[in-house]
Write a structure and sequence with these properties.
Elements (H helix, E strand, L loop, with lengths): L10 E7 L8 H12 L9 H27 L8 H16 L6 E6 L6 H10 L4 E6 L6 H15 L7 E4 L7 H16 L7 E7 L3 H5 L4 H16 L8 E4 L12 H11 L3 E5 L8 H17 L4 E5 L6 H14 L5
Parallel strand pairs: 1-2, 1-3, 3-4, 5-6, 5-7, 7-8
Helix pairs in contact: 1-2, 3-11, 6-8, 6-11
The structure holds ligand L6N33NVT and fe (ii) ion (2 copies).
The ligand C=CC1=C(C)c2cc3[nH]c(cc4nc(cc5[nH]c(cc1n2)c(C)c5CCC(=O)O)C(CCC(=O)O)=C4C)c(C)c3C=C binds next to helix 2, helix 5 and helix 10.
Pathway: Porphyrin-containing compound metabolism; protoheme biosynthesis; protoheme from protoporphyrin-IX: step 1/1
Organism: Commensalibacter nepenthis
Catalytic activity: Fe-coproporphyrin III + 2 H(+) = coproporphyrin III + Fe(2+); heme b + 2 H(+) = protoporphyrin IX + Fe(2+)
């Protein structure tokens, strides 16, 4: 029963990230990948074609290989994946910023747990009749932001009394986001005896056909890259935009980070840094793929210094960014 039926808004905020397995064992990873890769926003193929490949081939072999990768980065103290640890920290730290205003801050994962449905039900039980959904993706893509919104509205289909909802398109060049990135980059560079010859801005890739069909993600990444170069005073050559995490046989957005790194080593470039501005939290794609796989690739091809610059995670400037995004979006409700 909603005790808050009058006009007085009670506000809930739901931070949503991608999702991650609950363990490093075969079945935990299989469950997670099966939900993720069955999402038609993510894999745009007919189910007749894709499900037999997914269930028969991908989910037979990939979970075992991924299990080894997740084990390398697993948070052993909390027995959780870093993506879950950081997202929870972000929400809990943010909550402290809003105690005066009685705004409920919750976090959810698009795939796996805690689910969007569970957290929306929780906010409903707290009488939140105004909910701001904040997908933790700085750059919009239908494969990430839109599928969060889909899931939110699918859940609301089961509500007789629906809350007012706001969503966020993106924050690709929001000044507070750029400031948080600028700070983490400069902080890491200050620790280095010799400055890198290149700082790669590495973003999660996307199949090229999605971009050709109208997904604005590539432009969104370019906006972030341009804003970062401007504040750091770097050229495109010094700070190139690259894409990582290719999956499947499709042609993906380029340039691919592995090709760029290999080319650098051929040119005799010996000192590089990599930052992944598209990720709000360190995860498999940064800690394992960049900091381990691409480091190994660079060093084994003759590179000398490889610096991985962490994501903004729960740095105070990341919390300021999230706080300001919330303040900006709930205006008119308070
Ligand atoms: C066609 C497949 C995929 C698309 C499209 C895609 C887009 C996309 N993903 C992220 C962020 C993350 N992806 C992560 C892992 C991951 N991504 C895919 C596939 C696609 N992603 C797979 C199969 C996996 C699992 C790992 C693997 O099998 O290689 C993660 C990390 C999760 C973790 O547990 O740490 C993130 C984060 C974005 C931003 C994006 C679109 C731009
Ligand atoms: Fe700092
Ligand atoms: Fe992905």
């Amino acid at each position: 029963m909603n005790n808050n039926q009058n006009n007085r808004p009670k506000i809930g905020v739901l931070l949503v990230n991608l999702g991650t397995p609950e363990g490093t064992d075969y079945w935990s990873i299989r469950r997670y990948l099966s939900e993720f890769l069955s999402d038609k926003r993510v894999i745009e193929l007919s189910s007749w074609l894709w499900q037999p490949i997914l269930q028969g081939f991908v989910l037979t072999f990939r979970p075992r290989r991924l299990g080894h990768s997740y084990k390398k980065i697993w948070d052993k103290t909390k027995n959780k994946s870093p993506l879950a640890v950081v997202t929870q920290n972000q929400a809990e730290t943010l909550e402290l910023e809003f105690t005066q205003q009685h705004i409920c801050i919750e976090w959810a994962m698009r795939y796996g747990n805690p689910s969007i449905k569970k957290k929306l039900n929780f906010l409903k039980d707290q009488d939140c009749n105004h909910i701001f959904v904040l997908p933790l993706y700085p750059q919009y893509s239908a494969t990430t932001t839109a599928t969060v919104n889909d899931e939110v509205f699918r859940t609301l289909m089961g509500y007789r009394q629906q809350p007012a909802i706001r969503t966020l398109f993106s924050f690709a060049d929001h000044p507070d986001y750029i400031k948080a990135l600028q700070h983490t980059i400069q902080e890491q560079l200050q620790l280095l005896a010799v400055q890198p010859e290149r700082i790669l801005l590495s973003f999660h890739g996307l199949p090229l056909r999605y971009v050709k069909a109208g997904d604005p993600y590539e432009r969104e990444c370019q906006r972030t890259a341009a804003a970062l170069r401007a504040v750091l005073g770097k050229t495109e050559q010094e700070m190139p935009l690259v894409f990582q995490s290719r999956f499947g046989p499709d042609k993906w957005l380029g340039p691919n980070i592995a090709d760029v790194i290999t080319e650098y080593t051929k040119q005799g470039i010996q000192n590089i840094a990599v930052v992944a501005p598209g990720f709000m939290a360190d995860c498999l794609e940064t800690r394992e793929e960049i900091d381990y796989e691409y480091r190994t690739l660079f060093l084994s091809n003759g590179g000398k210094e490889f610096t991985y610059i962490p994501c903004i995670n729960d740095h105070p400037l990341a919390i300021t960014l999230l706080k300001n995004l919330i303040d900006q979006e709930i205006k008119g409700w308070v």
